[in-house]
Amino acid sequence: MSFDLVFFGGTGDLTWRKLMPALFQAFRHGKLPAGGRILAVARDERSDDDYRSFIKERFAEVESSKRPSDEEFARFADLLHYRRMDLSKPEDYAGLKQWLDARSAETVVLYLATSPYLFPVICEQLGAAGLNEERVRVVLEKPLGHDLASAQEINRVVRSVFNERQAFRIDHYLGKPSVQNLMALRFANALFEPLWRRESIANIQITLAESIGVGTRGDFYDRTGALRDMIQNHALQLLTMIAMEPPSTNDADAIRDEKLKVLKSLKPFTPDSVTRDVLRGQYKAGTVDGKPVPGYLDEVKVPKNSSCETFVALRTEVQNWRWAGVPFYLRTGKRLAARDAQIVVNFRPVPHPIFASNGRANKLVINLQPEDGLELHLLAAKGSGPAEQLAPVSLDLDFDKAFPSERVGAYERLLLDAIAGRLNLFVRSDEQEQAWRWVEPILDAWEGNPSDLKTYAAGGWGPAAASALVARDGFAWAEEQ
């Protein structure tokens, strides 16, 4: 299948740090369809060879196992091209269309790796230039908007140019192999479905923890914050996949219809419930991996009086028959104790215990990063001591060992899906807007009211109040169990 893949923002961090390495891995694995061209567009004046040299230099910063040899890069570089474009000039879009029409590839993927405020003008110009024909797909990188109104405006413009099946709203967490295995776990196996409901599950915890700070992105992060950066998209997408009803088919819209139902069933926030059920924090100086690190207010490009949250923990519920009364706890933060993304499904204890144990109930842990796998925690006889004494054991499935061939990364998977036109792992506009609708009362409650911002030392698990949030229901976070 012939394709042209165009990156708007072709010299930006996202393109050279994430997208180009992912494309190279697809090329190395033999998964990138033959007959493709990759075009980067940006404001700089460069030749094709200049751009190829630029990417080769940046590949030196990729982890060593993913770096190409000179021979590999030479073959990959044959696919790379560059055009100078001013995104505000119609004549530059006309020139792009001429370049694309010169060979008329079966599929054209336009990846907007730019700031979201440019999405409307780019889409309008693409439409005016006739670059919205049926073979064209547009990929929209997060964050898609800053609030509900801005997201709706972006979607309005996108829909005025492209139909919904041409719009690929990307959330790279959905491309992680463990997230895809979450679908398989639920809908390809009979083992868990009878237990996947309020009668058997006590609570569900979703943790997206990072040990890094904001680095050199302090100005961007300060305008965004943890709620917009992680909860509104990644965490809510994971919640929908955990809580959704079985779709009728594996069709993209059948899946996304069920995810939307979950988002509409989330318990809405009020000013009082935001105060009670949502916690925000900001890291101060501390120690991570044995090294001292600065506090958020001392990071580069961060205002000294910033009230931006770098940590969020919240409690919510899915108000339907399957999940009524089951707490869902969502947590994310920077400068935490570890880089750790996981979903923990805590099951209820047996109704009448006849064995002595440490009181731990069963739980299923779905590891997203850095490990990729499943852990099923059970109670078993110790083999020594009184027969009625039990101890915790776990069944641990490491997907990297179970599938020893090199696995496809998140961006690699999503880029290949965009080229192939598979929408299953992309977010539909009504999903995305409903997620904004749900978080907006939190943003409104926080506006101009920084007094509830907690601080926490870098290298821990966030403010102490996050533990109290869960303990109020008689539970604990996974690392405290």
UniProtKB/TrEMBL annotation:
Q: Where is the Glucose-6-phosphate dehydrogenase NAD-binding domain?
A: 6-181
Which top class of enzyme applies to this chain?
A: oxidoreductase
Q: Name the catalytic site residues.
A: 234
Q: What is this protein called?
A: Glucose-6-phosphate 1-dehydrogenase
Q: Which organism is it from?
A: Ideonella azotifigens
Positions with a binding annotation for NADP(+): 43, 86-87, 142
The EC number(s) attached to this protein equal: 1.1.1.49
The record's section on NCBIfam families has: PRK12853.1-3, zwf
Q: Which family does it belong to?
A: Belongs to the glucose-6-phosphate dehydrogenase family.
